[in-house]
Specification:
Elements lengths: L8 H10 L1 E4 L9 H6 L7 E6 L11 H12 L3 E7 L7 H15 L3 E5 L8 H14 L4 E5 L14 E8 H4 L16 E6 L6 H10 L4 E4 L19 H7 L7
Parallel strand pairs: 1-2, 1-8, 2-3, 3-4, 4-5, 5-6, 6-7, 7-8
Helix pairs in contact: 4-5
Amino acid sequence: MPHLITPTGAQQHAAEATMGLGVPGYAHPLVAPMEWAELTRPGTPLHWTVLNVANGPGARPDPHCLEASGRLRNAGTRVLGHLDLAYGARSFGELVSDAHRYLDWYQVDGFYADRAPTERAALTEVRRVAATLKALRPDGHLVFGHGTHPYPGYAESADQLVTFSGPWSDYRWSQVAEWTAEYPPEKFCHLVHGIPRGHLEEALRIARWQGAATIWFTDRTDKHRTVDPFEALPGYWDEIVSRIGRGVSE
């Protein structure tokens, strides 16, 4: 059983009322047209989706990505530009340049800062990047893609933190950091692959217990290490869409 922090009544209600999907980034629209089209289905509980043209915005505007992101934005879904922080290895100038191109070419609604550092020593520089991104898009949504629990101070610089990204075999026994109980479920996102259909309800229950309002669960795996398991629709897409937003029995 995963280590759990018992949520307050308000936290539990918020998690059940606002749980939705965060899509960490599909393949190019020409390669995955069905996936992109499904995200515009009316009633799909999307919090945001990530646009990753070529491990960033690419060298020039891509009309196919512009069209796909435009359909999502017209449907009311936030589209976030993918920025690779490379765990702090990329320069401030490179990141700001990428952010400008996303805004100029695709009118993104914020940014997904992937491979964000987790240690305290990198916090000052990441805060600098976050403040600049917020200045470029004052009403934008910013997600730090840590993939694990970072030093708590990161929570003050982003709208959301990805505190788990990995396989079901790890997630089902995962532990939640105690400091996360100080924040509402809307602060956290979990990305999990390799979840069998028969364990989907259990996975949703873990997310609610651990206080994560945004999730991306899929039965795809990374066993071949050549395809990102998050780049395709889950085999149980219709089922997960129908489950999100209503409580899962305890």
